[in-house]
Write a structure and sequence with these properties.
- By secondary structure, this protein is mainly beta.
- The protein contains 3 helices and 20 strands.
- The chain has an 11-stranded antiparallel β-sheet. It has a 4-stranded mixed β-sheet with strand order 1-2-3-4, with no helix packed on it.
- The longest helix has 15 residues.
């Protein structure tokens, strides 16, 4: 069963351009996976709103799989993290040449440090978009920068330990940002699995939830996710169920510039799983965008979710499915430390 999407947007507090008074709700797609988006809490002066969102698998699901960090999307500019205040929204729809018909919600946000704070980044615009592709029931989260960001220099987090690509594990921009702390399913219940590392390998935390002190632990440790350019797609699943629900979350393109990372919620407990522009950049050019893809399946297990995720990305980039060959189905190889990386042989003694 393919996962579909329902999106709801509740707009509270009126009087702002582009944001009607009262409450407005809209839905997109089907009823299996549910994305809820809420704009609340007007912050004077002017039309400023907080944005929150969550993802649930199953229309009747009581607990979300993913919950956003409360507050605002943000970007690193002028030597500090700057909140981007949401000021208006637009419903979007159309047809993508490769992914087909879509519906979505586009939010216009901008940095505004009035009445205090650094002014050099004021007016930096950040456009964030939630998109549902109907044919594949896929959800996309996109951040774009119509005017670019002139100064993202600085070191908000240390560089990755393996540093093959010399990139920070924590992005310079953040959308989406999902919280993982005690009391959330992402922390307490869901299993996770990921490809990552300088030498790509799988790591997992089956049944223990997405946890870890501080930032994402980096390769060569095997205790947590890998962030930055050495990180890979993240799979979340119902631990202990062979055919449970599962989803895949990953960048949707610009692979060396679009990354997933984690940062602490300090002083609050827990961490935030974030996506954005990789941390080694010093400027973001006008028109640049970073997208993230979420594909889910219900009652089919991990393999089905990963297969759907691959189908969507192949369609997006018009890449044909590769037919099985002897290299992928039969042959294996060894590393210099005599570790089997891939092998279909029943017995392969080290030599």
């Amino acid at each position: 069963m393919r996962a579909a999407l329902v999106a709801a947007c509740c707009l509270l507090s009126g009087g702002a351009t582009g944001l009607p008074a009262g409450t407005e709700t809209f839905t997109l797609g089907g009823t299996q996976a549910v994305l809820t988006v809420t704009l609340t809490s007007r912050i004077p002066p002017g039309p400023k709103y907080h944005v929150s969102y969550d993802v649930r698998l199953g229309a009747a699901a009581s607990e979300p799989w993913l919950e956003s960090e409360p507050g605002l999307p943000r970007l690193y500019c002028g030597g500090a993290w700057q909140p981007a205040y949401v000021q208006s929204y637009t419903r979007v729809n159309g047809t993508d040449a490769r992914l087909g018909a879509f519906d979505g919600l586009q939010l216009e946000a901008a940095v505004d440090n009035y009445p205090s704070g650094p002014k050099r980044c004021d007016g930096s615009r950040m456009r964030i978009t939630f998109t549902h592709y109907r044919r594949d029931d896929a959800i996309a989260f996109t951040q774009s920068f119509p005017d670019g960001v002139a100064d993202t220099t600085g070191a908000p987090q240390p560089l990755c330990l393996s540093c093959e690509f010399n990139s920070s594990s924590v992005p310079r921009t953040e959308f989406p940002a999902f919280v993982t702390k005690p009391g959330t399913r992402l922390h307490d219940e869901l299993g996770w699995w990921q490809w990552g590392g300088a030498m790509t390998n799988a790591r997992q935390g089956g049944g223990v939830g997405l946890t870890g002190p501080g930032y994402l632990k980096q390769y060569p440790t095997n205790e947590g996710l890998v962030g930055g350019q050495e990180g890979g797609p993240l799979v979340l699943f119902e631990a202990g169920k062979a055919k449970g629900d599962a989803l895949v979350f990953s960048p949707m393109g610009n692979w060396f510039a679009t990354v997933i990372g984690m940062r602490p919620l300090a002083p609050a407990p827990g961490n935030a799983l974030v996506g954005g522009v990789q941390g080694a950049v010093t400027t973001i050019p006008p028109g640049h965008s970073a997208g993230f893809l979420l594909c889910a399946t219900r009652g089919q297990g991990i393999n089905a979710a990963v297969a759907r995720w691959g189908d969507v990305l192949r369609a997006k980039f018009a890449v044909p499915k590769v037919k099985p060959t002897v290299v992928g189905t039969t042959l294996g190889y060894w590393t210099d430390s005599k570790i089997v990386i891939l092998s279909r042989f029943a017995c392969c003694p080290s030599r």
